Each structure stands twice: as C-alpha cells, then as structure tokens.
Amino acid sequence: MDSYRISEFNPYTQSTTEEDKMLNEKTIIDLLKKAECDLPEDVESALESAFEKEQNKIGRIQLKNILDNIRYARENSVPLCQDTGILRFYVRMAKGTDQNEIRDIINRAVEKATEDIPLRPNSVDSLKRDNLGNIPEIEFELTTDKFIEITAFPKGAGAENMSALAMLTPADGLGGIKKFIIETVKKAGGNPCPPTIVGVGIGGLSDTAMKLAKRALLRKVGNPSPDRETADLERKLLEEINSLEIGPMGLGGNSTSLAVHIETAPCHTGSLPVAVNLQCWADRRATVRISDTN
Ligand code: SF4
C-alpha cells in the first residue's frame, strides 16, 4: 500500500511523518481509537439538543450522564462504553486494489488495538462460545474512485440484539411498514440504550434489507434522506417513536430516538422486506480516506 497516502482525514494522531500518512496498521489502530473514544460531533450535538428539550427529570439525568461520559472518554482517550462492540469495517476501494492486503492490515491492527486501546475481546465461537479475541467483520465495496475509504463502525450487542426483519406483503403497504418499525422500537424498550438511531432498510431480498438498515446508520444524524417522501416518513416515524415515552436508557421521557434513517432498494413485485437495525446513543464511527499518489 506504499502508493497510498492519507489525504482527507487522519482522525486521531494528526501525524505529519510520511510513514504515518500511509495505509498501515497504525492508520487502522488510530481509526479504531477515534471511533471508540471520540463520539462524532453530529451525534453529540443531537444528544445535547435532546437534553435541552427533555422534560422528564430522570430522562434529563440520564442524558446528562451520557454527555459527561462522552466528554470524559474524549479527554482521557478511553472507550465510550465497556462493550467495545463487534468491529465492523466498511471499505470502499478502486477495482484492482489488493483486497487481501487490506484485510491483513485490518486483522493485524485489530489484534494490536485489542491490547493497546484496550478493546474487550468480544468475538466468540457462536456454538462452542470459546473466546476468539476480536474478529473484524469487513464489507468491501468496489468503486471507480482513486482512493480507499475505510470506516470503522463498532457495534454493541445491546442494540444489535434488537434487530428485526419482516417479510411483509405488498398489501401491507406503508401502514404495515410503519407498524413494524414502531412495534420493533417498542419491543426493544431500554435494551438498545436509548436515545437510539433507528436504521431502516426497505426492499431488495431479505439480506439486502438487513444490510441497508445497518448502512443507514452511517448517515450523519440530522441528515434526512435526499428523497422528499422518504424524508417525510423518517420525520413522522421519529415523532411517533418519541411519543412512546421509552426515554433515555428506557427510564421515561421523550428522547427515545435521535433520528430515523431509511434506505431503500427495488424489490420483487410480490415482496416487501423491511429490516430495522437499532444503534445505541454510543453511535461510534470514524472514517479515513487514503488517496492513490501514483
Ligand atoms: S448498547 Fe451501546 S451503549 Fe449500550 S452497552 Fe452496548 S455498546 Fe454500550
């Protein structure tokens, strides 16, 4: 990866040496440290405005604790939560880039970051339940861009466990979609550590809908869908969710969710898959872009 240099965002170290600008293990360790210890500005500012608006006394205390926690983690470079998550990476890269090399760099970096940051070794064999350390999940996407973009997206179990998929029928329509999303948030209650971000994927095959729901969480909080009707649906769902009185950490109040993000894909004329992926208040993500200097 010698021809690639960090061009846009070396989020943590702001290093100036040539070696540190290359895509290597340190790039990924820095990226993970940024994601784990420094909540993105858009999420923090949405939590601040929830605190300003929250009327429920216990809800306000919870939000204040969350905001204090965010500042403490940033100032002391410590993880925002004891559950440092399953380490999902999204890699966008040009055709012809060596995928195996990127995978190796990420694998080695995750092993080191588990010791250095430190991260809780969260991966286990799913049947035997033996601990495996941290095994990153990497989703690659080919682009025509002349850069590699890597996003670290640690995902905690409390929120991930509340994921749901419904294979609705076209006859269920918009009413069925809304009902399923609201019911999923209601059923989740305080388990996903609200205020949450509600990721929704509509369309495609069953796995497409789930993927879209998770990818919807990568959008900045406060950025509505570029499609007007979808944006309108996001706004109405958010209002309804925040009237459920689940509140911060499930202890009551109007700040149940900070945003609803919907992504869609075409689907079979006989299908209407809808997936929900919830994200907790610790909406951790960091991105680095590395440009090809050739
Ligand atoms: S759901 Fe999020 S905030 Fe809650 S314990 Fe898990 S990672 Fe931490």
SS-derived structural category: alpha+beta
Q: Which stretches of 5+ consecutive residues score pLDDT under 50?
A: 8-17
Summarize the helix and strand pattern as letters: EHHHEHEEEEHEHEHHEEE
Order of adjacent strands in the largest pleated sheet: 1-11-6-2-5
Helicity range: 25-40%
Arithmetic mean of pLDDT: 93
Distinct helical segment count: 8
Taken together, the total number of domains comes to: 2
How far apart are the termini? Answer: 11 Å
Based on CA inertia axes, which overall geometry fits? globular
- Most strands sheet: 5 strands, mixed
Give a count of the beta strands, DSSP E runs of length 2 or more.
11
Report the portion of residues in β strands.
15-25%
**Taking Cα atoms only, what radius of gyration do you get, to the nearest Å?**
19 Å
Instruction: Name the hetero compounds present.
Output: iron/sulfur cluster
Task: Walk me through this protein's architecture.
- It is built from 8 helices and 11 strands.
- The protein has helices at 25-37, 41-53, 57-76, 99-116, 157-160, 173-188, 206-215, 228-241; strands at 4-6, 86-94, 123-124, 131-133, 137-143, 147-155, 164-168, 196-202, 257-264, 272-279, 286-292.
- The protein has 2 domains: 4-37 and 80-156 and 284-292, Dihydrodipicolinate Reductase, domain 2; 158-279, no CATH class.
- 39% of the residues are buried.
- Residues 8-17 have low confidence and may be disordered.
- The strands form 3 sheets. The chain has a 5-stranded mixed sheet with strand order 1-11-6-2-5. A 4-stranded mixed sheet has the order 7-10-8-9.
- Iron/sulfur cluster binds next to α5.
- Residues 81, 83, 85, 156-159, 192-193, 280, 282 line the site of iron/sulfur cluster (SF4).
